Records
---
Amino acid sequence: MFMIAEHNQTLIVYGMALFITGAGLNVSCLNMMLTQLFKTEDHNRRIAFSINYSCMNIGFVGSFILAGVIQSYGTYTIAFYTAAGCLALTVILHLLNFKNVEDKDTFFHNQFSKSNARFLVAPGIILVCFLFSIFLIRHAEFGSNLVICVFILVFIYLAFIALKQEPEYRERIIAFMLLSSACMIFAFVQGMQSSALENFVEFNTNKTLFGITMEPATVNTFESLGVIIFGFLLAILSKRRLKNGTTLPPGSLITRGIGLYVLAFMMIPIGILLANKNTGSVNVIFPILLLLIVAAGEIHVNATSYALVGDLIKPVHQGIFTGYMFVNVAIGIVISGPVSNYAIGNKLKAEDITALGTNQMYSNIFVCLTVIAIILTIIFFLISKKINKVFDNIKE
């Protein structure tokens, strides 16, 4: 962040490469640390991931507000220095609490950490990731194809691992790979709303709620607020179920989450039907409702999916399967790109985009997304009973 804050193109590129390397390693490692704090049969893990996901979004909302204030003064350098300070504080807190979050019963803990090779391999991996990040920043056109290739290779490798396992563990791996594909669906939704929905709010809505002006960036904040609220609600309800001796199986939770996307996507066509007949302007409450419902689905899908590694996968394989889950997310974002580009009309200039001219296009797109979400919900519902039996077998 210090490097990005400097007004030097080379330093900015190196700073971004370091940030990408750190972020890529950090997110998966954070999930691994939380996973290993709980035993396989401990359902409190799912509650912890719900709370963790909500807290992460508290950070998002705080950063949005702070960034907005800093941006209003045009002091972008201070924004990056502030981010660097927050990261430094995070490192200190992590080191103070290291005894609670260090690896336990993993390949790294049992073998790699005791080998002298760690002094070369670990820095080597970081260096390769850093150099590769620089390459991708300078040649972004290779990014999408690379993600697809990595996904295919990792999928084949994990399928090979599954084939070598005993039948019971193989079923658990298959269940994980099926359920983790829900992360891909969420990422697709996320990619859509970050571009298509933002443009819809900008050009097709009245941008006012109860007399308050709502810019696209402000509207997007409602998703994070929704995740915070629904995350804590899900944790409270899950804790209550646990005290009563019952739990909602992960397959059912993820199916419910995808089902919520159906309701979310319907908000835009409904809003367009009720739009101003003369201007085509849609009330901004409809994209806000979409984001809030997506947030409810997001917490069901992502928090549950993140906890799946600890539920289904042995410690020795948890690292690679956590990575696979995030590759699913990357694939979803890649797929959403062409769709969102079509949604805003690549060939249209901003000044030519009008609500009356594009409402039908948005309506068609979100109706199609609703149909796709319905099909996916039905598929997940049909396979969830079989998958839930895998979790029952673990208990036994």
Note: The radius of gyration is 22 Å.
---
Amino acid sequence: MRIEIIDKNEASSFFQRFEHLGNCGLGVWHYGCYEGVTLQSVISFGISNFNPQRSKIGNIAQRYNLKIIQLNRGGTRFDAPINTPSKAVSLALKQIRQDKGNSIIVAYSDTKWNEIGTIYQASNFLYLGVTNPKGQANYRVNGRVVSGWNIRKKFGTRNMSILESEVDSIEKIPLSPKHIYIYVNANKSIRKAVAKELNSKCKSYPKRIELSVGSMHEIWLVRDATKC
């Protein structure tokens, strides 16, 4: 398998067919993994913000001169060999380090979609537990889902009464809890040092059987999304 940089349009087209959310999200850097001429998997990365004064991850990244990059999306053809997703993530991690330098890669698995982060576990990410959204939300504005951050940036508020007077149609979509994984994409000594600092926050990987979480049924999720 080989990896190449691809553009957003190609990544988006692939996700529409093979990933249940059907888009690149906030992805900025997109990588395609090929077997021969067949695009088997796509991984997209973007920028993630962790305030060094308010976040342990942000503080660690600052002290070790690490960027913080989010793995936003990953999708694989349904007929690809079973180990393709973990191979694709491994190649993408190596390539993003080559292109962008040392970093902490942050990835989330959404409980709303029965995700537990199986691929991140197979890729030796550290597991930090589950987020607490604390009333955070995305917004569906005139049929398009927009993050709460972008809503505040554009309108200066997230007050629904004000927003309803500004747009034709808006709906608040509460965020669901997400599993948090990180990967220290740097040399062995930095990986070891960061893992030691995060030791008290790291937890055992979640398992479907222990959480009574069913399969994602990826194919059906994508098919259902295309009907909407």
Note: The chain is about 35% helix and 30% strand.
---
Amino acid sequence: LAREAGRLVLECLRRGLTPLKIVTRQAIENAMAVDMALGGSTNSVLHLLAIAHEAGIPLTLDEFDAVARRVPHLCNVKPSGQYSVGRMDEAGGLPALMQELREFLHLDALTVTGKTLGETITGATVTNRELIRPLHDPLYPQGSLAILRGGLAPDGAVVKQTGVRFKSMLTHRGPARVFENMEEAVRAVMGDAIRPGDVVVVRYEGPKGGPGMREMHQITSLMVGMGLDEHCGLVTDGRFSGSTRGPCIGHVSPEAAEGGPIALVQDGDLIEYDIPNRRLDLLVAADELTRRGTAWKAPKRELKGILARYARLAESASRGAILREPIGW
């Protein structure tokens, strides 16, 4: 595989097939559609936003949500379905999935093979309908991801809506249990300090606050393993792995380190989310939030080297956590 990849890179160089000839708006929109049908990671939102920025292609969170409302989730793979993603090959792999999605794709988009997408997937067929469902009988009627907005996430947040095992948890209102980092939240869960109905808030884990926006895999795995995903939600300015299950809402923007609303949440505050209606709200009076915002100060941290530079230059997750160019460059 590595040898073939190297051969293809050299072939692309020989033909003058550069990245910007492949990474076009059409290609980005194709990637969004395939991700929604596959049940891909919430990380794809970050990556595609950042790739689009580097390619000079305007792209917003709202465009992801528009695709999710239009493209159904077809692949019966974990964490939203039954089977390992490794079994996709048995059903024809990604070419077969894209063949099923033809009406949602730009088939004339150029690919790394030098051929169009339509040419590349010609002849691909779905060989296992249990793994790749037809458009008329999808695993879920909407794509895997949803973009939430509201008082707690004015600039947006991301959730894998098809990964919520208990449909009663697609909407929820509960008291906040606030933690300043993932380790604090893990200790609370391990110590049986989280009660049914709570909304676990893990903050200062965003691009600036981490710094680096690490994955909250420990806390999500613990909550699912202890059955808390049936009764509790998780809200964070951090991110998740592709295997995350349950009502886990991440990428909350603006993040806590920027003084976003998530920085103002206190234990006991009511948080309400409604995934079908794309809402994430903090149910605290506006004058009280203004008072808290006036008193808020960013926590001081001893950072040096590349982490200090990253924390200064990182943009919001809603923009792909790209690096802002320093003044004078």
Note: Strands lie at 145-150, 153-160, 171-179, 199-202, 233-236, 248-253, 270-274, 279-282.
